[in-house]
């Protein structure tokens, strides 16, 4: 009896005894970013923490949620102009993409600080114990942690990258860690490593010399009296990463970087009756087609769309296609359109044989979770890298949107449908993702509350964060050793010179002279 009581008290102490005040800042304007942020913040609210969330209005919950208060921000019209046609994004070169992302980050940051709702929140005497901020080109938001004297938790909507590793003092090495904006997997040949290293160098120099100082200006403007951003940027207590070894390749992680990939996936729910029947009755299987929530398939160039339709029309499988309009020119008989589809629940159906996707990370994770092979048609951002990983992992094929032809797309689709290796590898990955000691969302909660319990958990920080970059790379030591070696060699030469002042050359000449005599 006593031990049961003790257990109860202990459980209460760990779970319910403290309710923290938490500010969540997920400013990413895309549904995929918000889906991740909301999952974490709703779960914290459900556990009794008081959550305030800075969130773009369109993504705020429609109903009131207990313990959860949204601070809505608007996305001004100019966002539409500044975000180019996403399909065009595929045409940009890598240097352009790197500089463009950094520049976008500064505009997004200003945009959030310019909102009256955010300024009102800053002026109010609201207090927070913890600030959870999405890592997305928004370094200036570290100022919120300073402003509230709150522990900083960072959530990366992708795995590790130069956006995550520098600030946590995590090892980063371009020889086997491809840049997020490139289309490489972790197995790179010499040329790829060369391009990757140069991209890494350019992006790093641009970030620390030009981008971070701009974020510092934003910090100084919005949080008067704040220290330089260099003191805030490297001071996060915890980083949660939307990655896992079943999805990403294995990389080193310092103890306060925790992988929670797959946390957004819910257990499959019952499908609507018509969809259930459609999937049950597909004796040759179903191909699920979706380009995610940002890309509109109707904006896709007609030639490429027809190439895709021609390939699909020749298949015996049924195709379930997420499409934003009611009809589709040249729609084949086996293609069924819907404006909205419950993607996770469809992928859970055993008759789904293939997922044709833009290669977005959440779609890729859902495919792995349910063990469905993919054909990726990547367009921008990390989609190229996700698709490259699927190819190396043997659970998918990629056809870059930029170079999509009927032949290339047809080959990829038929290869994945007809070679059982892809399905087997997808199922294997799924097993790895599910084989974990605790559910990813529970792990996220555990570590967030751990940071609260241990007052910022400074013991998890690596000492690399206390050193300058050249000290981390041992450059100072190398220069010192090189200097000492030089001095020693120099001294030896001097000693030889003193001991034999005539030197070897002179001796030889003298010998020659002697011989002549
Ligand atoms: C933010 O406000 C300032 C001052 O009103 C203005 O100059 C700037 O263009 C605004 N920035 C954005 C991204 O809205
Ligand atoms: C760094 O983080 C710790 C732990 O959360 C906090 O106590 C400290 O004030 C922070 N430092 C700065 C400069 O904000």
TrEMBL record:
Annotated TM spans? 469-492
Q: Where in the cell is it found?
A: Membrane
UniProt entry keywords in alphabetical sequence: Glycosyltransferase, Membrane, Signal, Transferase, Transmembrane, Transmembrane helix
Q: Give the catalysed reaction(s), semicolon-separated.
A: glucuronate acceptor + UDP-alpha-D-glucuronate = acceptor beta-D-glucuronoside + UDP + H(+)
| EC number of the protein | 2.4.1.17
Annotated GO molecular function terms are: glucuronosyltransferase activity
InterPro entries named among the record's database cross-references: UDP-glycosyltransferase, UDP_glucos_trans, UDP_glycos_trans_CS
Q: Give any Gene Ontology cellular component.
A: membrane
Any one Pfam family here would be: UDPGT
Span of the secretion signal?
Answer: 1-19
Predominant localisation class:
membrane
In terms of Gene3D superfamilies, this protein maps to: Glycogen Phosphorylase B (3.40.50.2000)
Q: How does it sit in the membrane?
A: Single-pass membrane protein
Q: Which SUPFAM superfamilies match?
A: UDP-Glycosyltransferase/glycogen phosphorylase (SSF53756)
PANTHER family registered for this protein in UniProt: EG:EG0003.4 PROTEIN-RELATED (PTHR48043:SF159)
Indicate the family of this protein: Belongs to the UDP-glycosyltransferase family.
| Listed name of the protein | UDP-glucuronosyltransferase
Q: Which organism's genome codes for this protein?
A: Pyrocoelia pectoralis
